[in-house]
Amino acid sequence: MARIQAVEHSFAACPLPAGPGPSTTAAGAVDADVVGAVLRTARTVLAERVAQTSEIDASFAGDLAGRVADFTLDGGKRMRPRLLWWGMRACGAADAGSTAAALRLGVALELIQTCALIHDDVMDRSRLRRGAPAVHIGLATRAGLSPDSERGSAFGTSAAVLAGDLALVWADDTVAETELPDAVRHRIRSVWRSMRTEMVAGQYLDLHGQATGGSSAVRSIRTACLKSALYSVERPLAIGAALADADERTTAALGSAGRSAGIAFQLRDDLLGVFGDPGLTGKPSGDDVREGKPTYLLAVARERAEAAGDEEALAVLARAVGNAEVTEEDLADVRNVFEATGARGHVERKAERLRDHAVRLLGEAVDADANGGRQLLGLLHTVSGGRSGHLPATPDDTRGHDDRAAARVLTAAEGGCIR
After folding, report:
1. How close are the terminal C-alpha atoms of the chain, in Å?
2. 201-206 contacts, C-beta under 8 A, 24 or more apart
3. Which residues pair with 391 in a beta bridge?
4. Predicted model pTM
């Protein structure tokens, strides 16, 4: 018992609101504080997981399992559990069984996100996450090794891969142990299996694009669909719809709305990675260029420069993209290329059309005047983004609501995203 308490203490520093546990929480109470309810459930689930590992080995529990629990509880917007919850509520579910299941499945989504982020930081060699040392850095330091030494780097990255694997195992266990009616369980397991594979596929395509130094616009959209649209938006909504036993038409419309909003999010995130104000976004400007990320923005700029025979623009991109030593002057040149080729304006218009497409589809799927529908609409607006101080506006007189244009962007992702 002493060992269990010692391990649990490692993540007890994350205070959560007091309140009823997941099995006694009414849907209306969760409506008032979805994030708080998910975190309370996460504390319960993770305490059980860490206690189990402490019976295996105290070092494993304290070093690895406790760190996975800490990471999952500390930070993040909990967007996936919120989408799951409001997708379920917008489809009309409010019973105690669905409420408890939704909170546990929300924790499972947070755990699979923990897996993705830990592995992403290893693949990208990122040293920081949420303002603190990334997991692979922290693990090396905890072991008394310098993360910058060959030995420390090898240990930290290898241990972090195991930490991500553990988070994925815990996510699967949480889904498997959630009480569900047989028909609902079948639907959710099908979505869950697809989502896990899609997440890995998106990570691989992103990694492959960086390694090979190029990606077409179609492939970039497919990567965005897998990494953001399906994994982060559409699949959580599908799980919520399954919990509510929503019909096929409603589920399909919710999925299409989520896919549109998710791709819009990734397109705007790509823009913020180059043009955003780091003081407002919290995201360094230019890192995507330094890392050679195969974004849709970059693909469009390259394709337009090639079509126009603009050798100067292509030379700027060849010099800067994937260059870890890129200067601020080089980054300014890249921004100029994105502007001059029209790539920036093109991507902004695509994101806006996809956002509008998502909103229209949601209105067809659920009652947008009911509380669940209103909340879900607000989340899709947040996900897909609008104009804000984070990204300066670009004058363009060709903007408009064009569902056909949005549909073309979605069709471009076929072969990896569109079922």
Report:
1. 49
2. 201/226, 201/416, 202/226, 202/227, 202/228, 202/230, 202/231, 203/116, 203/119, 203/120, 203/123, 203/227, 205/294, 205/416, 206/293, 206/294
3. 388
4. 0.86
Of 87, 47, 45, the C-alpha closest to 66 is 47
Residue 314's CB is within 10 A of a number of other CB atoms, namely 16
Assigned token pair, 318 = 């060849």
List the beta bridge partners of residue 378: none
Question: What does the block give as tokens for 267?
Answer: 């397109």
Per the CB < 8 A criterion, the answer to whether 113 and 76 are in contact is yes
| Spatial distance between the Cα atoms of 119 and 78, rounded to a whole number of angstroms | 19
Q: CA-CA distance, 249 to 318, in Å (whole number)? A: 46
What's the residue count for the chain? 419
For the chain, give every domain's residue range. Answer: 1-179, 182-419
The closest of 226, 233, 217 to 418, measured between CA atoms, is 226
Fold classified for 182-419: Farnesyl Diphosphate Synthase (1.10.600)
Give which of 117, 262, 146, 237 is closest to 187, Cα–Cα: 237
In angstroms, the CA 404 to CA 333 distance is 33
CB proximity list for 91: less than 8 A, separation 6 or greater: 240, 241, 244, 246, 250, 254, 366, 372
- Per-block average pLDDT, block size 10, for the chain (419 residues)? 41 40 71 97 97 95 96 93 97 95 98 96 88 92 94 96 97 97 97 96 90 85 91 96 96 95 94 83 78 93 97 96 92 97 97 95 91 95 67 42 47 44
